[in-house]
Specification:
Length: 392
Amino acid sequence: MNDFVYNTPTKVVFGRKAEEKLGALMRAQGCRKVLVHYGQGSVVRSGLLDRVREVLKAEAIEWVELGGAVPNPRLSLVYEGIELGRREGVDFILAVGGGSVIDSAKAIGYGLSCGGDVWELFERKRKVTGCTPIGVILTIAATGSEMSASCVITGEDGWRKLGCSSDTSRPRFAIMNPELTMTLPDYQTACGCVDILMHTMERWFYASGGMELTDRIAASLMRTVMKHALILRDDPQNYESRAEILWAGALSHNGLTGCGTDGGDWAPHKIEHELSGLFDVAHGAGLAAIWGSWARYVSSREPSRFVSFAQHVMQVSGAGTDAEMALKGIEAFEEFCRAIHMPVNMRELGVQPDEEQIAEMAQKCVKGMGGPAGKVVKLYAEDIEEIFRMAR
Ligand code: NZQ
Ligand code: ZN
């Protein structure tokens, strides 16, 4: 077992009408002026944004608004937010929406707090020194950004999708009302479920360390998500299942399912970020499309964690060699993806990169990492190219 630090300072307010607690939460922050950040309009259509405005008015808190964050949030809007925040003297950012809005808010927060060109933090030319405090009203179960230290932004210049992690960006509070996720299109619900699963799967595939309790928590989380993803496929308004998935999303990426390990592999995420950076696909669907190819490639060299995944997560029964068991687990996971209408290759995802684009993505992936991707097996550009080819 490895030593670890478990840091989850986010106050979670969970349940029906949780957003009604916003006033008290904002008051406790003691801020002067808030930037209310949102996406492309779902929170306008649902009336949530109007309710936020009412609360801020009632609390006599000044605010400015910036909408327009898109899936795979863009650097240009982050710059706009930083400029607006500086001009208006913003000292708190309220993200109302999904992972893209929250990540965009975190990047704006970095820019406001750290000064200079915020992109340099993502390019690892400078270190994060702080982040304007963030609060979240979550509308989709997926990324776990509501509790995580991570933030992923796409720079339009070269379509580079880069991450930047710092505990300073962990939200101060996260309001999670499962009912708010009921207006999601089925496709986004399924994408979110895959992303939640992957955040724990990435941690499951570690190369060193590990502890029984973490494995058991992780397996239970993954099995719970798969069960309720199937229920939501047939009954999207099921409150209990919405709640299970929403809470799983936060726990899956707040560090809990990686305690005592080396942190996990994360190559599928790095590879997918290149795919969604270049082709602008939904992150969860992109993960589903490449995971099987990554898993086949890596398990053929290092099967042990894939065998335990097959047994304890996918509950594959029967005997077989390690290679056979690993493959059965991978196939069972792909079957689950198909069952919730997620793609299991890039053709099903709707993208067909040519050789030049495959080479570009593989190069960018290794460059962005500053070396090979992954822990179970270290993947160099030629390995990543091969995985993309297998995923066609
Ligand atoms: O923009 P609006 O109109 O709000 O529509 C969104 C968007 O089109 C819509 N939506 C969200 N809540 C809704 C809703 N529509 C109807 N009703 C609701 N209640 O759903 C679409 C997807 O939203 P988005 O925020 O993009 O989804 P998600 O939460 O999956 O975020 C994806 C982004 O987060 C990054 C991904 O790479 C991607 O850029 N990630 C961030 C992580 C982190 N910060 O920790 C970790 C992840 O691995 C991931 O990389
Ligand atoms: Zn993810």
